[in-house]
Amino acid sequence: MTELAAERWGDSGPRIVMVHGSLSSAAAAFGEQRVLADRFQIIAPYRRGYSPSPGTERIDPDRDAGEIVELLGGGAHLVGTSMGGVVAMRAAALAPEKVWSLTVVEPPAMPNGAGRPAADRLITALRDHWAAADGTDLASFADGFLKVLGVDLPLPSPLPPPLAEAVRNLTTERPWETGAPAEELARAPFPKLVVTGGGTPGFEDVADALAEALPAERVLFEGSPHAVQRIGRRFNERLLAHLEAAGIPSA
Predict the structure, then answer these.
(1) What is the spatial distance between Cα 29 and Cα 21, in angstroms, rounded to a whole number?
(2) pLDDT at position 251, please?
(3) Whether the predicted pLDDT of 135 surpasses 80
(4) What's the rounded mean pLDDT across residues 10-32?
(5) Phi, psi at 166, each rounded to 5°
(6) pTM for this model (two decimals)
(7) Can you tell me the distance from the alpha carbon of 179 to that of 133, in angstroms, rounded to the nearest whole number?
(8) Are 193 and 237 in contact (CB under 8 A)?
(9) 6: helix, coil or strand?
(10) Which one of 7, 157, 246, 250 has the lowest number of neighbouring Cβ atoms within 10 Å?
């Protein structure tokens, strides 16, 4: 039984498991999707290392994926944003029989995009940032990380405890190494959707590569933030169309 704490919205309808990324957490990442609880049971766990779930010395996407599988129950739609998208893809590959559909939002599955120019530049920049940031304070690390991604997001000073926790977790990740199991996912029968916002060219390369390899439907909401799901209605409408097209497999 998983130890993860989770937001639970809605008490009827098909299940959706939503996995947050690195600089956010369940309630903040998916607040715009809470309106879907009139039609779905939404489970949005706090990944290990993010309060109120248990702490961890380092983020382990494979351990996270195993814990997400436990939340799929007899079957669910699976949605992941940012690093949560990588976790969701790994979880889907572990238990494809439990996944009705997969949606990922700007997953930093950098190895999958290797060989494409923008992805290669981002891989190098991420490695360089981690190497240069050794021993720097959390606020500087987070600020430099956002600059590498080309994300304009002023951070509060000092960092509030939940954000400081998230940044500390981020320092233990290695996004240039955390690829998605594309071959396993390509064999899985459920439909896949890859969404981006156009702000980070390296993530666009990764998304294009995933869309070809899985294969997956590819959607771009130009001018959206990295966490595209936060645009609300337009994202929700596209997500609903994907879920409805997928349906629920019969037992």
Answers:
(1) 8
(2) 46
(3) no
(4) 96
(5) -65, -40
(6) 0.96
(7) 23
(8) no
(9) strand
(10) 250
